[in-house]
Amino acid sequence: MKVNIVVEPDLEEEYVELHVKGITDEISRLSEIIQSKSQVITGTDEYERIVVIDEVDIVALHAEKKWCRIYTDTANYSCRKRLYEIENMLGKDFMRISKSIIVNLRKIESVEAVFNGMLLLRMKNGSNEYVSRTYLPHMKEYLGI
Predict the structure, then answer these.
(1) What are phi and psi of 99, to 5 degrees?
(2) Position 20 in a domain
């Protein structure tokens, strides 16, 4: 795919025009990215400070009652948003593995088969996450097994 960017300082409103042969998954995703408003993921640390969290630093997110906990390599944060709200803000590197957990696929260190046909994900920060049977087919597809 070729990309051409034209800078026009006198332009009143920015717009994007795509010339495509057909609508593919890649084109649809690109369109969603362009149209989405930039949203920032924030959390509250142990000192009650609001911290901006970079998506690439997130290891996992856990739903806890009406809010969620965001785990990174070095810390964890409380977030007032619901898990599904943050899920809509995250990119393709994230996958829901249970009703209450989303993981960053790039932060998986290893995968082990455990009891009842579930999978255990060992994360790079040392934590362990279990893939529930409901979400197992998606994880297996991602892993190619």
Answers:
(1) -60, -25
(2) no
